[in-house]
């Protein structure tokens, strides 16, 4: 009998370990982020400290003052990451401290702090179990409890319009709470498909009874749900505006668990498809839902979040003003680390004796490099002992996760102006990006590189680049340098590549990662 008793004790012991392990596995955050998460969730921190088998005990024991930056009482010295502003602000601000703070508010965790400071309750619950609606200014992001939608007039299969604003009538949106209709109306000034949720919530109505308790709902969604309106899924730059803003929304709601629903608010009957659809796995372990599954249904969400949107005025990162002279956003760096962690992509370098170059070729009608083969041949001939060069094409035949793995394990990433340069988000900290020619769109990827904290290069001598023709928009006929192909002077190309190699070799994080002692670093400008 004693033997059986011991077996039962062991079974209980291992079941307890397995149960606790599953709890902490759901956290699924990069190790570097866990102390910050614990300090935003002191209850979980205490739970970890008490449990014998919590794998994050070391992080829970760390200094409790570490903060992302948007929390109340978070001191600047305790923020996750501070931007650097070695360059001139070009007259935007009066002093260096103001320059740093403005950059932090525009493109870092300060953006979240600013938005959280705007949060107001638009519909106030009066009793337990009531509905609630709270939003930031202009309804750019909202949270709702026990909210009711009647999709009787969705009719998505008869529409090609992804952003219809007429799917609700009076009485088809609302909940049991006290509505501040004046506040709602005043915040409708950004009404636009990808800038605000005002169109979807403008007819929000206070009900006399609780919609869920009153059996008004054909479907009750009990799981936490993120609602999102999508930008162009075929374009990496624009689609990553969706993903960045969803990550921002997670921070604003202190919610990083993956047992959530993601609902595409798309009023058309079109199916979603994207090269980058694997990215949804970063945010949820469930397949995204199209709202057409709710057509003709009355649906209640117990816990819904209306995500920040891709094209908001002064949003992230499209339409974003960004002060000059600064680089290094903790928010963008954390996004990169978050994605790499959840895709289980590791850094396999740097190599001891070679710089890894990834040359992304284009397979489109415009902005191809006409003498690309010659350039690649000359780089390998002149720099072969210094470099390991991969010429790649990121298309449908290369799984997106494999693309990110290749990018992350690059020291230099180069391509012509185009959305593939958005991959720079996943470069290691010491890397450089070479936008070979910016085609008169000089700030787009330069700013994205500044946000990620990556050194940016582009073509310097216009007399040594040779466009195929003047370039004309294929539909409008207007001239533009984006709509042609190019040849480049090979000697000038190699000169720039050599500059990038020297920058990488002298980068402190490259040297630290390589783990070798070097002679004194050659002098280089610190501004990215």
Automatic annotation (TrEMBL):
Keywords: Endoplasmic reticulum, Glycoprotein, Glycosyltransferase, Signal, Transferase. It is an enzyme of class 2 (transferase). The keyword Glycosyltransferase applies. One of its GO terms (molecular function) is protein O-acetylglucosaminyltransferase activity. PANTHER family: EGF DOMAIN-SPECIFIC O-LINKED N-ACETYLGLUCOSAMINE TRANSFERASE, GLYCOSYLTRANSFERASE. This is EGF domain-specific O-linked N-acetylglucosamine transferase. One of its GO terms (cellular component) is endoplasmic reticulum lumen. The lineage of its organism: Eukaryota, Metazoa, Spiralia, Gnathifera, Rotifera. It comes from Brachionus plicatilis (Marine rotifer). Residues 326-433 form the Glycosyltransferase 61 catalytic domain. It catalyses: L-seryl-[protein] + UDP-N-acetyl-alpha-D-glucosamine = 3-O-(N-acetyl-beta-D-glucosaminyl)-L-seryl-[protein] + UDP + H(+); L-threonyl-[protein] + UDP-N-acetyl-alpha-D-glucosamine = 3-O-(N-acetyl-beta-D-glucosaminyl)-L-threonyl-[protein] + UDP + H(+). Residues 1-19 form the signal peptide. Its EC number is 2.4.1.255.
